[in-house]
Amino acid sequence: MEKEYYKPEEVMKLLGISKATLNRRAEDGTIPSELEEGRRRGRKYPKEAIDAHVKLLKRKDNAKLSFGPATNSELWASYQNHFRLYEPEDIVTYDRLLEWREANYDIFMSAREGGKRIAGVTMMPLEEDVIKSIINEEIREQNIQPEAIREWTDKNLTVYIPSISIHHTGDAQKDKDRGRFIIRSAIRWAISLDRQYDIKKWYAVAATPEGKKLVEHLGFEKIAGKRDAYLLTDLKKATKPIKAFIDRLEEESEPLVPSPKQK
């Protein structure tokens, strides 16, 4: 079978490096390449080897990513970022976010790269009547009162997922990587919560096309309501399809998180 090769410019773009760096790393063997014996020019970069190299580097980059409880500073960053993603009626004010945090500290999580927030997710154990009011457009998320938020240790919980989002960089590949990381992290967090607590139902409203595609991938079913609402009643039964979805996340051409609004 004939080998396929990348052009040097393609390798430079894949690795985000200059021509000088490419030449240096190819010569010292860091970047895999082929050069006919006795020749100094005409170095080739086999696609199979370069793809494996890129994949390894991505794993190393992902090791720099972390996921944990959001700080107040990160909530502020999240609030500002949402103006780039959502319509004004879908944005929750910063003071309301702080009120929610006072009601239940463990509902906001952030993904970080080098200590800086790059993405976030919110999951709220919420009174089901309030969730249904949101679905039927009787109230918006910004109207959720702190007293409607329950403790994770309460019985018979219903969980509402208001948002999963990233800070966009303009670099399509980096944004996809951030999207995949926050989705994986959010799923693992949801599974952990489900194992620890008495969660009966999971609700989500798809405010964007990406959000709709994501919840459908995760096994949520469309339910009646004025808003685009989805329900998952048994996360344990959905574990296998969710795992299959995680395994094929690399194949998704889009980050599956909200894109910036068109100006």
Topology readout:
Blueprint: E1 5-6, H1 8-15, H2 19-27, E2 45-46, H3 47-63, E3 65-69, H4 72-82, H5 94-103, E4 108-113, E5 116-125, H6 128-135, E6 157-166, H7 172-196, E7 199-205, H8 209-217, E8 221-223, E9 229-232, H9 239-247
3D structure, described in words:
With 263 residues, the chain is α+β, with helices and mostly antiparallel strands. It is 40% helix and 19% strand. The protein has 2 domains: 5-62, Multidrug-efflux Transporter Regulator, Chain: A, Domain 2 (Orthogonal Bundle); 65-251, Gcn5-related N-acetyltransferase (GNAT) (Aminopeptidase, 3-Layer(aba) Sandwich), CATH 3.40.630. A 7-stranded mixed β-sheet has the order 3-4-5-6-7-9-8, with helices on both faces. A two-stranded antiparallel sheet has the order 1-2. The radius of gyration is 22 Å and the shape is elongated. 30% of the residues are buried.
What attributes characterize this protein structure?
263 residues; alpha+beta; Multidrug-efflux Transporter Regulator, Chain: A, Domain 2; Aminopeptidase; 2 domains; seven-stranded mixed sheet; two-stranded antiparallel sheet; elongated
**Rounded to an integer, what's the Rg over CA atoms?**
22 Å
Strand content: 15-25%
Structural class: alpha+beta
Largest sheet: 7 strands, mixed
Shape: elongated
> What gap, in angstroms, lies between the N and C termini?
48 Å
CATH architecture of the largest domain: 3-Layer(aba) Sandwich
In short:
The protein has 263 residues and is an alpha+beta fold. The chain has helices at residues 8-15, 19-27, 47-63, 72-82, 94-103, 128-135, 172-196, 209-217, 239-247, and strands at 5-6, 45-46, 65-69, 108-113, 116-125, 157-166, 199-205, 221-223, 229-232.
